[in-house]
Design goal:
Elements: E1 10-12, E2 19-21, H1 45-59, E3 64-67, H2 74-83, E4 89-95, H3 102-110, E5 114-115, E6 120-122, E7 128-134, H4 148-159, E8 161-164, E9 169-173, E10 176-182, H5 193-196, E11 200-203, H6 209-224, H7 229-232, H8 234-254, H9 268-278, H10 289-303, H11 311-328, H12 334-337
Parallel strand pairs: 3-10, 3-11, 4-7, 6-9, 7-10
Antiparallel strand pairs: 1-2, 5-6, 8-9
Helix pairs in contact: 3-4, 6-8, 8-10, 8-11, 9-10, 10-11
Amino acid sequence: MPMKGTVFDFFVDKQTQKFVSWAQVVPEIAYSSTTSMDSVTVPTGETTSITFYLDLLVELRKPALLVGLAGAGKTALINGKLRTLPEEYISLTINFNYYTESAAFLSVMEGQLEKKAGKNYGPPGSSKLVYFVDDLNMPQLDPYETSTAISLLRQYMDYQHWYDLTKLQIKVINNCQFLCAMNPTCGSFVINPRLQRHFMVFAIGFPGQEALMTIFSTFLNGHVKEFDPKIADTVFQNKIIQAALELHTKVSSTFRKTANNFHYEFSIRHLANVFKGILMSESTFFSEPAKFASLFLHEAERVYGDRLVSVKDLEAYQKISKDTGKKFFKDFDQGQVFPNPHIFCNCWKGKDG
């Protein structure tokens, strides 16, 4: 028996009949900076286990529901699965919001269906359709604590049909299934238990430090491989990532959400935005690690600092940023790491000066 971790961190290898960590079977991917970060899902131990179960559920045409806080990676996980579906599958993403009602939901779903024989409807040809419903618990509730969109989905889950509201005739829906995601701290917080009982429910937590190192090192390594060797050095890249993780942790703990500053909520999504900015850099303009480190601090300020609403908070952030920079980049020219003014942009690309 493993001495560390939880039961969810392991699976039983059929050949050896022993517990094996999911981290040991994580596939490696090669990233190119010509590809958007949003279109790439970097596998980790946590995502590999969830993807394994999603593969089984999609093959068996069973619904799955991913539940987690904002920025935990629910949408990215399902989008990653949808991108790797076999050719016979098609998919449709539907984003629920506060005003989503059954009529609009039905209209969007039927847009992908065609009439078969008799009362039967389904996706074109012999295709199989996967609906991805994001923010499942967002629609407003009526005085009876129900939502028409949720009730429509429950009707399909119970009976595999819904009704033509014009002809008042039944429509039997074939070869369709649902993958859903929801944030339990938003919207109506929960969904109707009569609907939830149909789903295989997964709780998605935030990635750990090791997983975040894997994710962002994959992106950064793929981007800087054509840069100067001093920037492409793995040790320097790890310093950038470690500095980003520490800065994110300090910002999240220092600037808490309040009634006045309700937008002071920093998730992994904001950390990813820092690296999206870094990945816009070009090797032509960066030959020194100190300048690249300065770019990281600049992008972090654009993501974190620009969300702050008072001079006091901005000064507190700049102190945190400077302390982090001095800790991880103390061997570099501090004048290059902390220039004044601290500005990077592409406005003057192609111009002299």
